[in-house]
Amino acid sequence: MKSIYIGxxxxxxxxxxxxxxxxxNGDIIAKRVGAEIRFKRIADLDLGxxxxxxxxxxxxxxxAEEILNDPDINIVLELMGGYHPAREFILKGIENGxxxxxxxxxxxxxxxxxxxxxxxxxxxxxxFEASVGGGIPVIRAIKEGFAGDEILSIRGIVNGTANFILxxxxxxxxxxxxxxxxAQRLGYAEADPTFDIEGHDSAHKIAxxxxxxxxxxxxxxKVYMEGISRITSEDIAFARQLGYRIKxxxxxKGCGDSLDIRVxxxxxxxxxxxxxxxGATNAIExxxxxxxxxxxxxxxxxxLPTSSAVLGxxxxxxxxxxxxxxNRLPARSWLRENIxxxxxxxxxxxESECYLRFKALDKPGVLSKISGxxxxxxxxxxxxxxxxxxxxxxxxVVMTTHSAVEKNIRKALEEIxxxxxxxxxxxxxxxxxxK
Length: 435
Hints:
Number of helices: 13
CATH architecture of the largest domain: 3-Layer(aba) Sandwich
CATH topology of the largest domain: Rossmann fold
Order of helices and strands: EHEEHEHEHEHEHHHHEHEEEEHEHEEEHE
Shape: elongated
CATH class of the largest domain: Alpha Beta
């Protein structure tokens, strides 16, 4: 049987998962491909740590150049993460005629245009299914399953850490700090969780999905981001009372001649399937003009789910090598000459329904003053909740609005927060009604 040789750069959690999965499923994969997928070299700076898998030590190296310059290696797996030297390794591998598989969403979101242009120029393949959604085949779904449809929007939960925290807060009544601590104890959150809880990870992922869906470059600094660290148990309770659950959503929508792309905590109707995806699970909804809404749900992280996505890319590339059909699909889903520069809609121009939580003094006329200012900025109120009185202290007042322009919401809140009846900066969340 023929052999397809691969080289692995980065023998960490995901890299070890790929090795383990290939050892576990190698025979099945060989029967599906018609060739053995074999490691020729594995590179990592730390070769002493136990990864929980057995490998022939003769294939281990601390020098990635041995992989990039080896003429026998057909496919290079970059699983080290980060920007540098991952970017340089990938570009050199491409220049040397290597096919690339990567899980590096941050790198693709920031330097994807350069990398994809290099791939297209050299005529090699790149697979990056593992960069979004772990084991969920969402990239393959967009590139192939929905190729015959116009994608109107993508939205979903693409960060398991944030979803785990919000689920603990919603289902067990934990406050944010306690839920985060639990996530760290179980290994769902890093010691420094900023990348996950403040929306950076989700922004990288939705930028990649939007690029594929809409055929445009997505400057990562144009993706609006808000995290979940300001969500309180009080907000969770109000959301439940209103018939919603709070989720960190990544959203990309076509809006005529522009794109609405953003990441922020969102109140989702409790009847919506996305609202009921809990724990570290991911869920991504793709809305096509012909197909309607399709929801993909699964493990969004972890060594083995991610390794499944990595090996799926390896198998696709290996099949192309064997039958001489490389580059069957454009790397970015669209032909290079059809990639556009669609402007990203400024957040100030986005329209959405809103949840507003005020901390106000318990005085007559509070509601009329707040509603008057909202009305002066073309914001109409949908519902109001006012908690019972507490002598000598402020009371929470919650309002939901009909759809309003973001800049009007911000101007109104700035004006309201200056009132002497308001004790604390007003907190707001956007609502998604499932349309």
